[in-house]
Here is the input.
Amino acid sequence: MKKTLYLMRHGQTLFNARRKIQGASDSPLTEKGKQQAITAGTYFKDNQIKLTHAYSSTQERASDTLELMTQLPYTRLKGLKEWDFGTFEGESEDLNPPLTPEEETYGDFFVRFNGESDKDVQNRMNTTLLELMEQENHENVLAVSHGGACFMFLKKWEDLSKREAIRFDNGCILKFEYENQKFTFIEAINHNF
Here is the structure.
């Protein structure tokens, strides 16, 4: 039986607006971020999508986003948290290493700075979401996470080199179908902000 996963990036935060690296660190939602969350909630209502279960990262920006979207009870999971960027946390995004056109991620760059590798993040997200979707009665699941973590999960299941770039705006919802322990990417739902 096919199930649906809606994997969402949290709304804009103060660090996003100020172009600060925030992985394991946290900052509050901006007014724009709050509106992005409310708009995402409206998307589910307008499309008559009845969510059966909801989950968020343990980071406040994700749980705040979820609470603005729905009144559905939810569980916070460490497996959905953002990539840990080590000592780069809270610094300017200008300090991120440049990527060449053939590179899609930072690889293991942040490991030497007490952070995580891209594969660590990908494995953590994949394990967590597989476990969620294998649970009984999990037909339409919402999981609120983060840009880097969502990207690494998408990269696990979709060959990004064979398609146009996918926007990962704050508030973006990535829709996947799930069946036989496999995820199929359907679409990225971005609201124009």
